[in-house]
Amino acid sequence: LGSGGPVGLARLLEATVSVHPSVRAKQGELQAAGFDLEGANWARFPSVSSEVQADDGTRAAAIQVQQPLWTGGRIPGQIDLATANREAASAAVIEAEQQVMLSVGISFYEFVRQEARIEIARANETEHRRLLEMIQRRVRSEVSPQADETLAAARAQQAVAERLQFERALETARVSLEQISGISLAGGLRAPDKLPGVPVSELEALDSALDFSAERRRLQALVVAARAQIDVTRAGTRPTVYAAVRQQLGTLSPGLDRTRAFLGVEFKPGPGLSSLTAVQSAASRVEASEEAVVVHERQLAQQVRAAWLDLQAQTLQLEPSRAIASSTDEVVASYLRQYQVGRKTWLDVLNAQRETTQARYSVADLEAGVQAAHLRVLMLSGRIDARSLSRLGP
């Protein structure tokens, strides 16, 4: 898809979620789980069977309608199992969406960071070109030594190499985002003016993350599914009681009724004690599923804490870095004046320019890093998901 201008974060995330293979695969699994649930519910209804027999040139046929009356918990267990599997599949869709959005959000702000670095690198390149021209005039006038011009030319070339490096990184990020989202980023990206607020504390962020976590809901649904599987497995150790109506077709032997209604009992325990072993296996899966929930909660707590601390640390560094970058802007001009009166060397001037540029790079990195960490906390805590992207603006 083409793009006439800068692409906003919300649009990029929406486009990516709609086309990403992992999300679409989970949506397909959800659809299949819905059909499985529908099929499990149909088990409550009568079933129809027919049979044909041929013996000594004669044929006999019959149709039987059979309604289960008591299955030892098999049918309710299968419905509960299918319901839990559908819930797990639904949570898996949201889980895949969040994973994709987190990845794209990080790449988005990496793109923004590289764009900012390129702008700074271009300004640095322009300044080094100005310094080189100035020292070349001084060398031609034999005021400054040739070594100063050589040093200035090397620093100017280094500035060009930095810009080219950032442009390559930006192009790599652009291609990656275009491939994953299916939209053109020729017009660049547009960062949100302001992201929604994060929780007021790390504890609130963790509570929100636990409530929202799609992976946690999926794992909890798998616990329910494992318990339902126990009911289904135990039902295999019990008989099934059913009512049936059988209609005989063709020629009947004398004294036989064409239509019969009866109650039946069916019992298929399986070979040996396999059914009891299957119950024990299902119980073990419940324990494993419950442990998986605990493991995820601990991992989620670590993720939230890391994102929260990252946000706080970078936010605290941002204003001091801006102040440093602002103060270094005047250093180069000051060093040039002092160089002209012999109080600073040419190397001091070039080093001052390098420190100014590095300070600007640091500010650009922190600005993008704060926004990326902010977005990560929002997504982990559930304040931004695929259904609330409008909160990020256009």
Strand neighbour order, sheet with most strands:
2-3-5-6
Low-pLDDT regions: none
Order of H and E elements: EHHEEHHEHHEEHH
Biggest sheet, open or closed, and with what strands and sense? 4 strands, antiparallel
Helix content: 55-70%
Offer a quick outline of the entry.
The protein has 394 residues and is of the alpha+beta class.
Q: How would you characterize the overall build of this protein?
A:
The longest helix has 67 residues, at 74-140. Strand 2 (47-55) and strand 3 (58-70) form a beta hairpin. By secondary structure, this protein is an alpha+beta fold. The two termini are 17 Å apart. Helix 2 packs antiparallel against helix 3 (74-140) and helix 7 runs antiparallel to helix 8. It is built from eight helices and six strands; from the N terminus they run βααββααβααββαα. The chain has a four-stranded antiparallel sheet, with no helix packed on it. Strands 1-4 form a two-stranded parallel ribbon.
Chain-wise SSE layout:
Layout: E1 7-8, H1 9-19, H2 21-42, E2 47-55, E3 58-70, H3 74-140, H4 146-181, E4 189-190, H5 202-212, H6 214-235, E5 240-249, E6 259-266, H7 274-340, H8 346-380
Parallel strand pairs: 1-4
Antiparallel strand pairs: 2-3, 3-5, 5-6
Helix pairs in contact: 1-3, 2-3, 3-4, 3-6, 3-8, 5-7, 6-7, 7-8
